[in-house]
Automatic annotation (TrEMBL):
Record keyword Transferase present: yes
Residues annotated as domain BioF2-like acetyltransferase: 171-318
Keywords for the protein's UniProt record, in alphabetical order: Transferase
One term of GO molecular function: transferase activity
InterPro entries on file: Acyl_CoA_acyltransferase, BioF2-like_GNAT_dom
Pfam family, one: Acetyltransf_6
Keyword Manganese found: no
Protein name from the UniProt record: GNAT family N-acetyltransferase
Species this protein is from: Mesorhizobium tamadayense
Domain of life: Bacteria
Length: 385
């Protein structure tokens, strides 16, 4: 019934992929713009090789499913991963539920997909949402394992006032009103969804500055936006998706960006994936919280139904009405070396940190990874926001 190929130069901007994505159960992180920019700017320029599994209907040639994967090598260790490159917060096969079930029921198709994955020492995929398609069944994994963290989404009400009343604590609403008055007394404060390359660039330059100071690597993962390839990737997504898929927000004070955020629109939800603010100048005014409040207002005015803060257990997500949903990961060893590497990453936190450091160094130098045989765990990759 199906034909399986590996098409590593697959065109994610093609009409056939746009149609497949529109009818699929995939997430914003498999959107045509996102994956086209990711493969062009992060996969092909980084320490990874495309592995794009394409399933078509044998009779008609119609696209049935796409699996956007990559191959990575950590010295002796050959690893197959989903193409998230530390920026995608949810992963999913790109297919509708009915077609995916038919593929799972076709043993020859499943065998062909698994054959294209080899050789590997370790197959490892994280960031599976609670309701994601059962990729573990497709890849021959017994069960999902918990990532030990959740994603958070806040339900939006028909009106901004209603959302504040139902999702924000009364005392916090009063606190935000107080902070807003303070901010407006400091000068000309203005919030907007920015439009145009110049304003987007100004916002991203500010984000890079603020995030570089806050996430300097001394207390956790360093900020990916400081790496030229990642900065260019986010900027490219913001520009290509402007007016539709991507929204860039900015809070201005007297014409200067003091806070900013990038969000992805998908089926009535806005996924906030990147944010930053002038902590030194406006922390007392809770500028980050005021920005999220205004983002919620903008989403409600556009008719969105959810504000999705994506993966990570930061406390502010609950403050803004976010409800947790568990995240999952799967792995399959293809060799004794792969099994040993998986156990090392799971049991030794130092191995996670070392693997992450090697990846960051590889992107800065645009060279092959240093001699480390353990891949980073999926939870170390949840750094986009």
């Amino acid at each position: 019934m199906f034909e399986v190929t590996a098409e590593d130069a697959f065109d994610f901007r093609s009409t056939e992929y746009a149609e497949l994505f529109a009818s699929s159960a995939a997430t914003a992180f498999q959107h045509p713009i996102w994956l086209a920019q990711l493969y062009d700017r992060l996969v092909r320029q980084g320490a990874a090789t495309p592995l794009i599994i394409v399933v078509r209907m044998r009779a008609s040639g119609k696209l049935a499913m796409v699996l956007p994967l990559v191959r990575r090598r950590y010295t002796l260790l050959k690893v197959v991963e989903f193409a998230d490159m530390r920026v995608s917060d949810y992963v999913s096969p790109v297919a509708d539920e009915e077609t995916f079930s038919r593929i799972l029921a076709d043993s020859r198709t499943v065998a062909a997909i698994r054959k294209h994955l080899r050789p590997y020492d370790l197959l490892r995929i994280g960031k599976l949402a609670d309701r994601a398609l059962a990729m573990e069944r497709l890849l021959g994994v017994d069960k999902r394992d918990s990532m030990g963290m959740s994603a958070y989404s806040s339900k939006l009400e028909p009106t901004f006032a209603g959302w504040r009343e139902h999702r924000l604590d009364q005392s916090y609403r009063k606190e935000l009103d107080k902070k807003s008055r303070q901010l407006n007394r400091m000068g000309e404060a203005r919030f907007e969804c920015v439009d145009g390359p110049a304003a987007i660039r100004t916002t991203f330059d500010a984000l890079k500055l603020y995030r570089g100071k806050r996430f300097d690597g001394s207390n956790g993962p360093a900020d990916l936006l400081q790496l030229p390839s990642y900065f260019d990737f986010y900027m490219a997504v913001a520009n290509e998706g402007c007016g539709g898929f991507a929204r860039t927000y900015a809070f201005w004070m007297n014409g200067r960006a003091i806070a900013g955020a990038l969000g992805l629109e998908h089926r009535g939800s806005l996924l906030v994936i990147l944010g930053g603010f002038d902590e030194a100048g406006y922390r007392k005014q809770s500028i980050g919280s005021l920005m999220f409040e205004q983002i919620a207002r903008d989403c409600i005015e556009r008719g969105d139904h959810h504000l999705d803060f994506t993966i990570g257990d930061e406390p502010y997500k609950r403050i803004f009405g976010g409800r947790p949903s568990p995240m999952w990961q799967i792995y399959r060893a293809g060799s004794p070396l792969g099994y040993a590497a998986h156990l090392t990453v799971e049991k030794l936190p130092a191995a996670k940190a070392l693997a992450r450091h090697v990846l960051e160094a590889a992107h800065v130098k645009k060279a092959k990874p240093s001699p480390v045989i353990v891949p980073p765990a999926p939870d170390e990759a949840a750094e986009s926001s």
